[in-house]
Write a structure and sequence with these properties.
By secondary structure, the protein is of the alpha/beta class. It contains eight helices and nine strands. α8 links the parallel β8 and β9. α4 crosses α5.
Length: 246
């Protein structure tokens, strides 16, 4: 089976600019772009009132001045949080962005996006549906659509039902025949695996199935070189300062 059409750059900036700026904030995406990155990975989840915003963790404590489960808070409360001061004083006051705000920035600056769907436990189907609906609306006239990804099979299935035209990727922590079969059944265009998983035989099998291979989170030059030698299709990295994207 031949590989499906692929529109995306090889290098993808993790959560905007990796660890150089507060993750999943507009400041991080601006910094990633300043390092000449054209594609970014982000994490999208739902507030209690169904608003799609960016945050990696289920809880607020690590990357904001809030407390508790993010998905149990309304957007008005989440919008008031400081999501930058935890990183450094230079980013104090940086807020949690809406997916719509990031979409506007990407479309204005020529950025492409891998949106990881991050459901609060118990909201997998609703989160997949809403993120896909919002992405389809925001990128309705874009030349290159966002790539939706998730570890959650239920979220990806719901995303497929809500916006079948958007490309999808299945995230894996372990490689297995079941994972490859699941990616096929979900109509995915890519498998996105933890970088040590990828070996020549596995990359060959995934390519033979018509899927692309991406690896996360690659921060070591020797590992990046190993993966490039396998003809992998994309690397997600924190080290936007170390790996020139062109």
């Amino acid at each position: 089976m031949s590989l499906r059409l692929w529109h995306y750059p090889f290098w993808i900036a993790h959560r905007g600019a990796g660890t150089l700026a507060p993750e999943n904030t507009l400041a991080a995406f601006r910094l990633g772009a300043a390092h000449r990155y054209r594609m970014f990975e982000c994490d999208a989840r739902l507030s209690a009132d169904d608003t799609v915003f960016l945050l990696h963790d289920n809880t607020l404590e690590r990357t904001t001045d809030g407390q508790g489960i993010a998905g149990q808070r309304p957007w008005a409360e989440l919008a008031a949080l400081d999501a930058g001061a935890w990183h450094s004083a230079a980013y104090q006051g940086e807020g949690l962005p809406l997916l719509s705000t990031l979409a506007s920035w990407c479309l204005t600056h020529g950025g492409m996006l891998n949106i990881e769907i991050k459901p609060t436990p118990g909201t997998e189907q609703r989160t997949g549906q809403r993120v896909a609906q919002e992405a389809a609306r925001l990128w309705a006239h874009a030349a290159v659509p966002p790539l939706l990804s998730s570890f959650s099979h239920a979220a990806l299935q719901a995303a497929r039902a809500a916006a079948p035209q958007l490309p999808r990727g299945l995230l894996l922590e372990r490689f297995s025949d079941e994972g490859l079969d699941m990616a096929r059944s979900l109509g995915c265009v890519a498998l996105i695996g933890h970088h040590p998983l990828w070996q020549a035989e596995r990359v060959g099998r995934v390519h033979a199935a018509g899927l692309h291979c991406l690896a996360y989170t690659v921060n070591d030059p020797a590992e990046a070189q190993r993966l490039q030698a396998l003809a992998i299709d994309g690397l997600i990295t924190d080290r936007v300062d170390l790996f020139p994207p062109d």
